[in-house]
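Lab meeting, item 3. Inverse folding demo.
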């Protein structure tokens, strides 16, 4: 069967459902959905459909994607390996189901989301690392 690009809301729904089907069964991140958040899937999935539809097609998501992740992070620290695994599952799901410009855009957007969320959670979870990464002197200014 030849793969097609992500073109419709039905494609978005297939992508999101397939991703969460894998993510919830994953040994590394599944417990976050199942045990920590005890996700209400009939409520959550339409929100995720709207979110991805707005990023890839022409949906009208109006939520704050970061806020729930700050709440999760208070219950279980969302560390880099978790974001890496989320992204790995997302990318493989998209590549398994679709091929094309919008499918590539979905992966690009997922990478950006993962990087931003990982940075923000690390800033909270490891504030000492943030201070260590800030140069005390402008490297371009040798006079200090």
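The presenter then showed the designed sequence:
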């Amino acid at each position: 069967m030849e793969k097609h690009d992500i073109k419709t809301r039905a494609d978005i729904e297939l992508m999101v459902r397939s991703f969460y089907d894998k993510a919830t069964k994953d040994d590394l991140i599944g417990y976050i959905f199942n045990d920590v958040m005890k996700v209400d899937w009939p409520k959550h999935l339409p929100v995720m459909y709207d979110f991805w539809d707005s990023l890839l097609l022409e949906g009208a998501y109006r939520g704050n994607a970061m806020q729930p992740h700050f709440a999760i992070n208070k219950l279980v620290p969302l560390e880099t390996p978790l974001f890496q695994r989320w992204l790995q599952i997302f990318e493989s799901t998209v590549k398994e189901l679709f091929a094309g410009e919008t499918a590539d855009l979905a992966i690009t957007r997922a990478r950006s989301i993962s990087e931003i969320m990982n940075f923000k959670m690390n800033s909270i979870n490891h504030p000492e690392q943030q201070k260590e990464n800030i140069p005390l002197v402008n490297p371009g200014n040798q006079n200090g």
